[in-house]
Amino acid sequence: MNRPGVLMDTGPLVAFLSKDDREHDRAKRLFAICEPPLRTCESVIAEACFLMRHVDENGPAEVVALGRKGFYAISISLEDHWSDIEALLKKYKNRPISLADACLIRCADVYDEPRILTFDSDFAIYRWGRNRAFRSLG
């Protein structure tokens, strides 16, 4: 079991909530080995709500309900990290980096946390804490 604080990206969250997603069983297994709350950011939750809207009209509410129940916690606010996140977006401008990705990289810096639930292969390239690699649980 992974102690609380694992970083959570959009893909596994959407797959976990969507029973028809091809990665649903994988996401269930991954979340089963992580003790809540997972760490995430508002950008991840916004992406998940947007994607879940296409799956089920109640999808966005299901995403938010998981936060209310303590499944995940919003661990950083973009407002407190403008410069650092801007620098990450510039650093990885040749990658398909999203705001959510940059926020998760910054979250890793702030909490000294390399573990991440993601299906995004770019996290094998992204670095945090000067040059530390992520440890993908996905």
Map the helices and strands.
Layout: E1 7-8, H1 10-17, H2 24-32, E2 38-41, H3 42-53, H4 59-68, E3 72-76, H5 82-91, H6 99-111, E4 115-117, E5 127-128, E6 132-133, E7 135-136
Parallel strand pairs: 1-4, 2-3, 4-7
Antiparallel strand pairs: 5-6
Helix pairs in contact: 1-2, 1-3, 3-4, 3-6, 5-6
**Name of the CATH homologous superfamily:** 5'-nuclease
Quick check: average pLDDT? 96
DSSP, total strands: 7
Structural class: alpha/beta
CATH fold-level name = Rossmann fold
- Gyration radius from CA atoms, angstroms: 14 Å
Q: Give, in spatial order, the strands making up the sheet with the most strands.
A: 1-4-7
Bin the helical content. Answer: 40-55%
Straight-line N-to-C gap: 14 Å
Principal-axes geometry comes out as globular
| CATH architecture type | 3-Layer(aba) Sandwich
Please describe the structure with a list of short key phrases separated by commas or semicolons.
138 residues, alpha/beta, Rossmann fold, 3-stranded parallel beta sheet, 6 helices, globular
